[in-house]
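Please produce the structure of this protein holding 4'-deoxy-4'-aminopyridoxal-5'-phosphate.
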Amino acid sequence: DPAAILARQRERESSARTYARTLPIVPVRAGGATVVGADGRSYLDCLSGAGTLALGHNHPDVVQAITAALSRGAPLHTLDLATPEKDAFTEELRACLPPGLGSDVKLHFCGPSGADAVEAAIKLAQTATGNQTMLAFTGGYHGMTAGALAVTGNVAVKNPLPATASVVRLPFPYPYRCPFGVGSPAGRAAGPDGAELSIRYIERLLDDPLGGVTDPAGLIVEVVQGEGGVVAAPDGWLRAIREITRRRGIPFILDEVQTGVGRTGRFWAAQHSGITPDILVMSKAIGGGLPMAVIAYRAELDVWTPGAHTGTFRGNQLAMVAGRATLRRVRQDGLDERAARLGSRLLAGLEDLARDRPYVGNVRGRGLMLGAELVDPTIEADAVGAHPADPRLAALVRAECLRRGLIIELGGRHGAVIRLLPPLIIGEEESERALAILADAADAAVR
Ligand code: PMP
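Below is the modeled complex.
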């Protein structure tokens, strides 16, 4: 009885769990971009395991690879021993890595979650520099373990207590709502997205011995903030940050947990601006739907002593197998380019949708990582022309979408950004359908 399962699990789950509360469905089967609930209803899945399922649910390549590994009796878990499965995955992953990391690039299997890889990256940067303080960004999201939480910008809900690690947060450019308050003279000088002022601010901070951060351990940033509301860093800004860190010898950590594996229309989102990190953080789609997290870094950063960073679940065998199948398919079929093509059509569709709906304040995104920020147009706009965010409406839209068979996610500073993270294999007809449902649901929600 689906209703009983739902009620039981809701009651037993902690109140911190969000999906369990906001998506009242009991998935029992899934394929491609479709999830079927225990009630027999089909849902179009534009969340895809929080961006994990690049190939959608139960892609034949992934199913075949996992069943083959099980039937040949491959060991299920082997810590960090060398196995043929790990060898094959590593070969495939190396072929996908940005060449700028060097042919002697090192891999460190963490696991099982994205946050674990962030922890490893922070610790590696701290070990390499002998410094403590991390530089991170407003609106950033890196996970829920202590270090990852400390560099996460969502302090109101996720991080209400003082951070356990030393972190200084820097302003991330947010074109729709300039973080500097463009009403002020400094804000007006910041340009349309505050990017230039952000760079000057960071340089000043790193230079000032009186309370600045003259000895940072590393800098961590997302190319497109996902949980932060689908906010893409301007390419020029990213290049400037890369240059500052290079000049000053600050390890540059790029968190591509959500943006990696074709999501934004390039295999890595960093390719849009042509930058290469010192440490690349990967998870979600690289495990093909199974838990996997890896960092890749320049060989000269490999300063760890044996035993310095270990763990039981690093490099799960089935995740290697599913991950390899996924990476291969994304590369062979050019699913990153497909994401770029389909994504720009979806973005155009969202722009159309926003045109005669004043409560859709801003639509944005890259590839198949898309967002629409909902606002209250009855309240006066600020100096940048943005109305206040409307999280209540966003929650209503999500519920109306679900009623019409579409699963979406919310994010952003106020939870007012509708996010679409469909699998990269979503069909053209399916993506049109998602847009139509979204429009319909939005109209129903404002009524
Ligand atoms: N970094 C980014 C950019 C993410 O989007 C996420 C998860 N949404 C994480 C890190 C943390 O990953 P996990 O939830 O697997 O710990």
